[in-house]
Specification:
Four Helix Bundle (Hemerythrin (Met), subunit A), 4 helices, 8% strand, elongated, glycoprotein, CASPL, transmembrane helix
Length: 187
Amino acid sequence: MKGSSEHGETSKQAPLGSSRGVSKGVSVLDLILRFIAIIGTLASAIAMGTTNETLPFFTQFIRFKAQYSDLPTLTFFVVANSIVCAYLTLSLPLSIVHIIRSRAKYSRLLLVVLDAAMLALVTPGASAAAAIVYLAHKGNVRANWLAICQQFDSFCERISGCLIGSFGAMVMLVLLLLLSAIALARR
């Protein structure tokens, strides 16, 4: 059967240039997500670290003061966000190298491990701070802890706002891990 041809699916491989374009796009998105996470962690650490409020009590000589450093959980929050921000800043050059050399495998694997470690650091910091913020707003009747946000309202508003940047950075780190996994799987 000289003239017969086989009918069915044919496989066409994508041109090599489009694969590089996708890898470069993933690397650019990686860099953008790192910048967003840096902004979130830096803003959270600075805002929490500068949070305090003083209330006068009967006279101007007796005052009640609320600071982030009064609660070790909020101090851990500031330290964790600062460490993650420093790491993300130091990882920017490596992310830029991935844009230039999209085939870099071991450096991307290193970023996956370190990104996972930073996610493991920022998650308990943000979660513990969220628990303290909840207690500050609602209190706990069974433990006889009163809600302090009725008196220290600007303090509570500020520490509540700090959580947004930290939880946003958590989401960015998860997306960075997914992007790195996609980039490594394409090799």
